Amino acid sequence: MKILHELAIAACLICLPTAGWAAEPLELSLEDVSRIALQNNSDVQLALLEARIARQAVEVSRSAFDTYINFGAAYTSDETSKASTILGTESTVNEYEFQVSKTIPWGTTLGLSLADQRNFSNSLFTAPNTYHDSSLGISLRQPLAQNFFGLQSRGEVAVAGLEVAITEKAVLDRVERSLAEVQNAYWELALRQREVQIEEEMLERAKRLHRIFQDRIELGMTEEAELYATEANTILRQESLNTARNRARVAQNNLLRLLSEDNLDVTIQTVDLLPGCVVEPNLEKSLDLALLHRRDLRAALERLRQQGISVRMRKNMLLPQVDLEASLLRNGLQPDVGEAWENVYDEDNPRMFAGISVRFPLENRA
After folding, report:
1. Deepest in the core among 82, 255, 342, 351, taking most CB within 10 A?
2. Taking the model in full, what pTM does it have?
3. Contact, 318 vs 147, CB < 8 A?
């Protein structure tokens, strides 16, 4: 049930002891209708949802810097026939691997790996028959051309962030326009209700004047034509009052529509007075304020920044993919797994690798 409907029911229940079941007008201020519009207006809710969706895009772009963890385990049993008895008739291998990798904003991908391999063979020429090969390694990969020092990844995050800023400014504009429409409808209703009050006063005066002329007719102090004129004026005033009431009802229905209120039986009574002062606009001051506060202007500037970042990213994509790769690994080889890991730390048995890989498309249609 809508907020207005609930407030109307609550107002009726409060007034039950004195007014029976008669529906009392719901008194609302400009602040009240603004608050209800923010909670109920579908355009406002849709705009806020679009802002939330835009903010999720930033998180998606930042996922390029997520940390990844890989686990692996494998078991191999080999009892196939061999061409030589030296190889033995049975061998098993148990493999366990743990890897952590992360890409930092500068485009560097860092990796850490831990692995253990348990080998068994019944070959007479293998001593010991069972041994563990444990290893600890670190790796690095750095782009040197395409995505140079993370230009692509950081650019995507920056573009997504600017898109959020642009979307939020557009959302605020939509919310303000919706609130302005609601507030204009509120003042329109206040104006129409004031017109109804004026027309009721005019009708009451017309009736009073008509009664005066009726008394004068009985006393022979006036002509019948003047009595008919006052009667006609009373009828005209009644028609004007009916027209004013219809306009007030239309204005109220328009306000209820903007507040997303389905129950048209709710009667709203405005409590704020119509503003009586008129502010003369100052062109120079208005222009200065517009340049300082206009969200569409700031959004346009941010759009230019966003497009500039996109141009730099696309120019970078024309370059080949050149990656510098390096790794360092140390291992230990012992029958016992604990001793194998001790050898990893205690003995100086490194394996180092450094290299450059180049990859580029021949057509480069992308």
Report:
1. 255
2. 0.63
3. no
Residue type for position 81: S
Taking only the tens place, the pLDDT of each residue in 71-96 is: 999 999 888 877 666 667 788 999 99
How many residues are present in the chain? 366
Closest CA to 64 of 159, 132, 139: 159
Q: What is the pLDDT of residues 236-253, one digit of tens each?
A: 999 999 999 999 999 999
Q: What is the pLDDT of residue 4?
A: 52
